[in-house]
# Entry
Amino acid sequence: MKILVNKKEYNLNIDPDMPLLWVLRDILYLTGTKYGCGIGVCKTCTVLIDGVPEQSCVVPVSYVENKEITTIEGLSADGNHPLQKAWFEKSVSQCGYCQPGFILQAAYLISKNPKPSLDDINRALSEHICRCGTYSKIREAILFATKE
Ligand code: FES
Ligand code: FES
# Structure
């Protein structure tokens, strides 16, 4: 099976039912995508599939054949995506575990809505869970990244 991750093609001989999360982490060693609940409710494992956020813990790898996957490692070449710079500027992360999922969800939001309001941001991120409680910093960073 061929999959395209961060613009790189991989030819894999694996169980087609394997969740994408484990393919990314255990086979491709792209460990930026994190495991939280494993049942599709915390959004920690979010990646972009053809540009749309999906939970990689519940997506079988067969679903992404011929689709383009972007993980946090592929969001920018050197961490210079406006959101990554804003995250740094605003010191958003605490333990950091949930942050790749939030950043990819936010990247999708601003790809569709370059000037999101606070309400837009709240709606877009409402299902993501951060045990460290960085929600207000995340909102601040997204507004900062999109202010001009
Ligand atoms: S680990 Fe995938 S949604 Fe929680
Ligand atoms: S920064 Fe620790 S869980 Fe979100």
Q: What stands out?
A: Residues 92 and 137 are 5 Å apart (CA to CA). The domain at 82-145 is CATH 1.10.150.120 (DNA polymerase; domain 1).
